[in-house]
Amino acid sequence: MTSHKRPSRRRVLAGAAAAAATTTLAMPAIVRAQGKGPLKVGVLLPRSGFEAGIGQDCQRGVDIAAPILKSLGLPALSIINGDTESNVDTAREHAEKLIEDGAQLLVGAFDSGQTTAIAQVAEQKGIPLVINIASAPQITEQGYKFVVRNFPTVSMLLNDELSEQKELFALVGDEPKTAVFMHVNDLFGTGMSKGIHAMMPKYDLPYKILEEISYDPAARDLSVEVTKAKAANAEIMLVVGRLNDAMLITRELVKQRWTPKAILSMGPGWYENQYTKTLGKLSDGPMSLVPWYDPNKKLSKTLEAAFAKAYPDYNLNTNHVFTFEALLVAADAYKRAGSTDPKALAAALHATDITDNVTIGPGIKFDANGQNTGVRCGVVQNRGGKQVTVVPKEAANAKPEWPMKPYQSRA
Amino acid sequence: MTFDVYLNVVVAGILTGLVYGLMALGLSVIFGVVRIVNFAHGEMMSIAMYLAVVLFSSFGLDPLVMLVPIAAVMFAFGYVLQAGLINPFITRPEHSQFLLVVALAIIIVNALLIVFGPDARTVQTSYAYDSFQLGPVLVDASKAYAGGAAIAFAAALFAFFRYSRVGTAIRACADNYTGALVIGLNVKRLYALTFALGMACVGAAGCMMTLIVDVTPIIGPAYTLLAFVIVITGGLGSMAGALFGGILIGLTEALAGLIFTPSAKSMFAFAILVLVLLFRPQGLLGQRLS
Q1: What is the pTM of this model?
Q2: ipTM over 0.90 threshold
């Protein structure tokens, strides 16, 4: 009799295990179904490794987001940080870990390779991913249901960068006849080089490329490269590179006493804070043809003010605005979905239609593949240690300074 | 391309090569005597580079002025490191030594990352953007000063090993370890002193390097590799070889970048290394070990 009344140890353990299993299995459903608490957003960025500087710069866009999103009447986000360590495999592992830790939506991850790996995990696990920065076209050509991207693809970038050059030349009333093209010899640089050569005839650009100089992105010294570029005696310099080489090239231009009529950069580096901070007056003049923010938009002014208050030594740039907008997209979708259910979130993401945004273009709206096809590049020029937008006309807040002021005449 | 362009590139290549040579000199000195292959060489140089950057940004002290004090600090660091940590590994198998210095390298990179963050830091001296016009040649002032300082420092080191009693004793240790013990030399102390001298070279090279390149915590491994390419080309253990190897690699990279494509300039440096390993494995100025 007593044996019926007293539960055996085995039964207690089995019961406890069953209860634990029920709780564990039921929990995600409960958590996912409710939409009252903040949305748990896993933000994956290269916070260490060779892209650490850019990853940490993107984080600044995350850090200033909360009060702005609140002022827009959007729900709160609970941010869980993840580090891709600038490595594709680590990006994949950390995406899985963030999802295990309860992330209900992912944001990231600056680098195309790392973002591709995260997108695969997101799709496999059925957790939405909002891409902040990554331009490899294939990410949004896979038919993924849980992935959206608010950043131009390589072909969109090239189309804008070449068409806006013509707009720029028309604006300054000068058509350069010759150019020297310097670019990094990695995937990004060579890809851009092939794209530029393939698309140049379509845009009927006025200049001829006299010399193309590719170099190692980890180069310690670019004196030979600049000597070679100078010897080409071209009117303008086209560059596709990053921060390290942008600084090396500028220093060599000064030392070798050569100022081209214009430096047109189609990539990062030349507008970055460290470039302007380190080089001071020597950083003025180069123009970057990059996805940028529209300084005339209302939300841009709010973001600029918040950013200046939080980071007085930095200028707002691509890294900040696109990371901020990824969170804006996430919060907006969460508000409309009214739920943390991944399918409801994904459906809300695809139905996004934000016109009160920051970046150049009509707003944020995704096509069937999850790509925002409206996001545009701008031409921004370094002036007085800051960036002004000179093209396109609707986003411009200054006239271009053309030609560049000679380096030797700067005090 | 005109002759002037070649002349400019040759001068720039030689000046850069001189600084490379001084950096590699430290590695060669340490291996030549202590027989430890320092895989943390570039990382140790990055410590000196950060010292130079901090002294410049905090007190406005020019790296060229701080060359001797920083070399002295690195000398002390090297002495303590060798006597306290590396010396017990001298008689252990090579893989233990390898793991020790690689661990040191990883610790240095990550400690620098924690302390200074990932951003590149630079020294903006008043002559940072100056260049001298010598006929058709434009000489980068920073490189010229760095190259000159490299020659002066290397000459002082050569003189020390050749003419001082301690230098002679260190050379005796390198030539015949047992013999040095037999005649009563304090080999442990001399080893620590040699390692310290190697570190002083690294300190001086790091100071000069800040005039030419920006420093980041992850800069070390690339310079470790470069130092190995230089000393193996010049002759591991040969001081003159290290300096010669530096100039050769600097010049090769510069000319290959100009004549062929800049992308391939490192390839040419490695091609020289392969050729040396094939046809003169002891290095261009090294001695064949029996």
Answers
A1: 0.81
A2: no
